[in-house]
Design brief:
The complex is a heterodimer of chains A (about 280) and B (about 120). Helices cover about 35% and strands about 20% of the residues of chain A. By secondary structure, chain A is an alpha/beta fold. Chain A has an eight-stranded mixed sheet, sandwiched between helices. Chain B is built from nine helices and one strand; from the N terminus they run H-H-H-H-H-H-H-H-H-E. The two termini of chain B are about 30 Å apart. In chain B, about 35% of the residues are buried. Classes of the chains: A alpha/beta (about 280), B mainly alpha (about 120). The interface between A and B is large, with 46 and 53 residues. Strand 9 of chain A pairs parallel with strand 1 of chain B.
């Protein structure tokens, strides 16, 4: 049977992506060099963990989905997941592969356990996935991905408790997949940031570091914090941190913190925390 | 420029809700059409003619012409959609943020990250 071997939570942002491209072309902005260096141990972890599948819980930013039909929860089940053109053209990376056998298994299990997701056979992925991916792996990409999109751009957004339960259901879905495969679960959402209003650019490192410290053992407390309170202290887009609860919910309590890192380059708190399942 | 407060109300913060989405429906459709390179070309070749295909109000078209990013957000434009208009005309997120905060772009870039502290109550 399939096993969850661990996973990580990580920030994303458009600038994380294009600063990478500028950096590898020869001129890393010093602030982004810090993030690049800080992500090297994550790259090593992923290479050593050798997952057969990577589940990615993320959010789109009106780059694939539009308001004609904006799903609250959507699962991509397809052979490949190309990049979305966000308005600046495509970056020089191949599409991520998908595995439809695994994808349909997870879709079946989640819907039969009361998570009625929208299933997408065409799902282009934006910086929510492609901005951090090159920091943790190089093409050819290490494993097929199963992207699960969570609406974070228009309220109402799913509650923190619901996303934790989604993670628990994801674990059960993975563990019932009848093949001996290794699965990593990644969640991504910006840490403290706000990108409109007079509070534009606010940065709460104290909160971000507390979040990274406490997501390991204090999930009960974290999911009880009103999302509005997180938006007050961390910026309106810090609400994306709720996505990280799906990753933590998919892991057991028998975990080890393999690594964490934090920096604040410009507009978005950039953090990562990596967990290993001790029994896997 | 005061440091960021804790307010979630305009003009400090714009929380994007369902009713804002309803008000901004045509504006967002127009803005998101600019994800396609061909549409970006068409828009730049004649902004007014291109916008008329989307049944926008005169007021919204004037706000686009004036690069009034704050006005467009108040008109129901989603930040991620307005960003596509900004990108098409050679601007970006910094310009939108600076316009929202009513400061020059260079000042906003120099100011960020705008550090605050504080944890949730009883945390």
């Amino acid at each position: 049977m399939a096993r969850v071997i661990g996973g990580f939570g990580v920030s994303h942002s458009p600038s994380m992506g294009y600063e990478y491209d500028k950096g590898v072309a020869g001129s890393f902005d010093p602030r982004w060099r810090v993030w690049y260096d800080g992500m090297q141990p994550v790259k090593k972890w992923l290479a050593a963990a050798k997952p057969d599948h990577i589940v990615i819980v993320y959010n789109d930013h009106l780059n694939h989905f539009t308001f004609e039909a904006y799903p609250t929860l959507a699962l991509g089940v397809a052979e490949e997941f190309p990049q979305a053109d966000e308005g600046w053209g495509l970056r020089p990376f191949p599409s991520l592969a998908g595995d439809t056998e695994f994808g349909w298994h997870v879709a079946n299990h989640l819907v039969r356990h009361e998570f009625d997701l929208t299933i997408c056979e065409d799902m282009k992925l934006d910086h929510g996935v492609y901005s951090w991916m090159p920091y943790v792996a190089a093409p050819p990409w290490p494993a097929p991905v199963l992207p699960l999109a969570v609406n974070m751009i228009r309220h109402p957004i799913p509650t923190s408790q619901r996303l934790r339960k989604l993670g628990v259901a994801l674990r059960a879905a993975i563990e019932s997949f009848p093949r001996d495969v290794r699965v990593a679960v990644i969640a991504t959402g910006g840490m403290s940031h706000q990108i409109s209003g007079t509070r534009f650019g606010m940065a709460n490192e104290e909160w971000d570091r507390a979040f990274l410290a406490r997501i390991e053992r204090d999930l009960d407390r974290l999911v009880e914090i009103p999302q509005e309170e997180i938006m007050r202290i961390g910026g309106t887009e810090a609400s994306e941190l709720a996505i990280w609860f799906a990753m933590r919910g998919a892991l057991s309590d028998n975990i080890r913190r393999a690594y964490d890192f934090y920096t604040f380059p410009q507009i978005t708190g950039c953090g990562v925390v990596v967990f290993d399942e001790k029994a896997a | 420029m005061p440091e960021p407060n804790r307010s979630l109300a305009p003009p400090d913060s714009y929380i994007y809700t369902g009713p804002m989405s309803t008000i901004g429906r045509n504006l967002n459709r127009f803005a998101l059409s600019l994800k396609s390179p061909e549409n970006r070309k068409k828009f730049l070749a004649g902004e007014d003619a291109y916008m008329r295909r989307f049944a926008l109000s005169e007021r919204v078209m004037a706000q686009v012409a004036a690069r009034d990013w704050t006005g467009l957000i108040k008109a129901g434009g989603h930040l991620q959609a307005i960003l596509k208009i900004a990108a098409t005309v050679g601007q970006g997120l910094w310009h939108i943020g600076a316009h929202n905060a009513d400061v020059p772009v260079e000042d906003m870039i120099a100011m960020c990250p705008r550090r605050v502290t504080g944890l949730p109550e009883n945390f």
